[in-house]
Design goal:
By secondary structure, this protein is mainly alpha-helical. Helix content is about 70%, strand content about 0%.
Length: about 140
């Protein structure tokens, strides 16, 4: 199949913001031909995702630090840092073999994991929580005071 060219990348998480999804799909379209380019695009997507999550989006390392201060789970922080470091090494001399399709395929998975933890899961839980009866919600609020 020649079009659409998606490489071996998994489909993006349905909850992925459009600005990130655009870069994700571009990275997927070149992943077989340029794993390094794909890694760099995924890193950029993570930086934009941090901005979507309320951070400044100017320095990805600082954005991750701020998200950690706000209670970011360790697994998400590690996923963000893996994509950040690997993507950085794709465009700067580094020690990670970003020409490896296996490494880049893992970055696609991690990007989806980050979106799942930071957007999809909170949306799902919030929707279910809001569906609880009002008297039960009032009881929870009273309990937590």
């Amino acid at each position: 199949m020649y079009y659409p060219e998606t490489g071996n990348a998994p489909f993006p998480n349905p909850e992925m913001p459009g600005s990130v999804k655009k870069l994700y799909l571009e990275a997927a379209s070149i992943s077989n031909k340029s794993p390094r380019g794909s890694a760099a695009l995924l890193r950029l997507g993570i930086q934009i995702l941090c901005k979507e999550l309320g951070e400044k989006g100017e320095n990805i390392n600082n954005d991750i630090k701020e998200l950690v201060k706000k209670g970011l789970p360790d697994i998400v922080q590690r996923s963000l840092d893996i994509v950040r470091v690997t993507g950085n090494d794709a465009v700067h001399p580094g020690q990670i073999d970003t020409d490896s399709p296996d490494i880049v395929n893992n970055l696609f998975d991690l990007t989806n994991v980050i979106v799942e933890y930071m957007i999809a899961l909170p949306n799902k839980v919030s929707g279910l929580y809001k569906g609880l009866p009002q008297d039960k919600l009032d009881g929870i609020i009273k309990r937590d005071k």
